[in-house]
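User: quick one
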Amino acid sequence: NTKITQSPRYLILGRANKSLECEQHLGHNAMYWYKQSAEKPPELMFLYNLKQLIRNETVPSRFIPECPDSSKLLLHISAVDPEDSAVYFCASSQSGISNERLFFGHGTKLSVL
Amino acid sequence: QQKVQQSPESLIVPEGAMTSLNCTFSDSASQYFAWYRQHSGKAPKALMSIFSNGEKEEGRFTIHLNKASLHFSLHIRDSQPSDSALYLCAVSMMNSNNRIFFGDGTQLVVKP
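Assistant: Done. Structure below.
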């Protein structure tokens, strides 16, 4: 799927700061960050719907999303923790309503040393 | 909070078999029911969805919904080795802050 691109593909970090990037070329109005830990389903972290942020309140404050425009999504992570090791998927949907199909990017695999 | 559960956790079937995957949900106000498939190391990809009671067929795949029983299912006819993947059911409600709740998944292996 080249319509949603994420970078980097793989990330190995000590206790550092880093940003994940996503860009969608589908003309969608809603973009999401999902975290998928090993042997677990994807869990919603953040949603931007027409640039309005909706957050999952269980996500630690060291994760900060940013949506510079409707096609781009960033996830800034400060002082990563080993529990942050997971695959982070960016996704998008047409309008951001809850009964829409999600389109996922290929993911960024984060490994925290 | 919505609780979505899948069964079985894993399944091994021979090529050509009919495969049935199950999903139960807890909130009777749920309005959107979907199945996603995730091949190993890849992103989840939507397979099909349904909104009202009954069934819907697309090729070898059939989705069946019974809202009164809080249950929906995915049936795969003539299962192929390429169907081997993690299958995630997904449920959402209107006014749920656009949140889709995923089940824990069923790992399907289709043996040639």
